[in-house]
Amino acid sequence: MTHRPPQPPPAIATARRAVRRALTEPGGPRAGDLVLVACSGGADSLALAGAAAFVAPRIGLRAGGVTVDHGLQEGSAERAAAVAATLRGLGFDPVEQVSVDVGHEGGPEGAARTARYAALDAAAERHRAAAVLLGHTSDDQAETVLLRLARGSGARSLAGMSPRTGGYLRPFLGLDRATVRAACELMDLAAWEDPHNTDPAYARSRVRVEALPVLEKALGPGIAKALARSADLLRDDADALEAWTEEAERGVRRADGGLDAAALAELPRAVRTRLLRRAAIAAGCPAGALTAGHVAELDRLVTGWRGQAHVDLPGGMRGRRVDGMILVTPPLR
């Protein structure tokens, strides 16, 4: 009689399948490559580490880990050291504990995120990693969509996080937080709960602790999953519009770099405004400061042209219409 090996609990099996799927997608890591797991010590990233430690060697990959100490709380260095020890205990090699200085630009959450990704980028480059795995779940996706919806963002922004962004992979983006945390517990990995996750000083914490529960109570269960599904659908739409924009740019871009206003006017607004936003950023406007209002004013140079002198844009730039062209340049002197 053949004895089958014991099967892992469903939550663990689900986490492992998600990691395997992410790591075996076309264009992903190849046999012998190193993949790094970004681990904060929270339940989501620990579950990711545990699943990756099981899956990676079985598909011919090497697994390493990085934990980033933001230095924002007392004892953070000691906690980061404990996380690094856990990663080594899972068999990861290399393992790095990286300390960062968090600035102020973009608010506390944005500044911490900027510092964290810079550290992860540098670690991936140092170790020549083929990919960095992040532990975001569908609940994180829902929170991201709500935050961006409150800012009046467009389709690309409301599409939320992608399962793959450059060298970053998010295997758990299709799994809910409850499943991932159950997997962490069943793997006997001791998670640390960051107090910032429930601190009302942070917008994401307010969405997580206050806004989503209110929506669930008012509209019924499943709001987080519905928001994550909406992000998936919007991502498909945004991808299609970006492809259309790429094609359209060849027809409106003049040899001297300006955009042909008459050709722009023939395009759907969704494509036209993407082209105008691209032109502004390429000319030097900071992407984070360029709002939908700025782009709408540029669009008026195309569709509501009444001889306007210029449109003031972030970064000290100006949008102008000259000889039937839309130009974004520094102020004329």
UniProtKB/TrEMBL annotation:
Location(s), subcellular: Cytoplasm
Which residues does the UniProt record annotate as the domain tRNA(Ile)-lysidine synthase substrate-binding?
259-321
Q: Which GO terms describe its biological process?
A: tRNA modification
What top-level class of enzyme does the UniProt entry assign?
Answer: ligase
Q: Which residues form the tRNA(Ile)-lysidine/2-thiocytidine synthase N-terminal domain?
A: 35-209
* Origin: domain of life: Bacteria
Q: What is its EC number?
A: 6.3.4.19
Which residue ranges run through the membrane?
none
**A Pfam match:** ATP_bind_3
Q: Which GO terms describe its cellular component?
A: cytoplasm
Q: Which UniProt keywords apply?
A: ATP-binding, Cytoplasm, Ligase, Nucleotide-binding, tRNA processing
Catalytic activity reported? cytidine(34) in tRNA(Ile2) + L-lysine + ATP = lysidine(34) in tRNA(Ile2) + AMP + diphosphate + H(+)
Please tell me where ATP binds in this chain. Answer: S40, G41, G42, A43, D44, S45
Question: What molecular function terms (GO) are annotated for this protein?
Answer: ATP binding; tRNA(Ile)-lysidine synthase activity
Annotated SUPFAM superfamilies: Adenine nucleotide alpha hydrolases-like, MesJ substrate recognition domain-like
Q: Does the keyword Cell inner membrane apply?
A: no
- Main site of residence? cytoplasm
Sum up the protein's function in the record's words. Answer: Ligates lysine onto the cytidine present at position 34 of the AUA codon-specific tRNA(Ile) that contains the anticodon CAU, in an ATP-dependent manner. Cytidine is converted to lysidine, thus changing the amino acid specificity of the tRNA from methionine to isoleucine.
What the entry lists under NCBIfam families is as follows: lysidine_TilS_N
**The family this protein is said to belong to:** Belongs to the tRNA(Ile)-lysidine synthase family.
> What does the entry's free-text domain comment contain?
The N-terminal region contains the highly conserved SGGXDS motif, predicted to be a P-loop motif involved in ATP binding.
Name of the protein in question = tRNA(Ile)-lysidine synthase
Instruction: Please report the organism this UniProt entry assigns to the protein.
Output: Nocardiopsis gilva YIM 90087
Underlying gene:
tilS
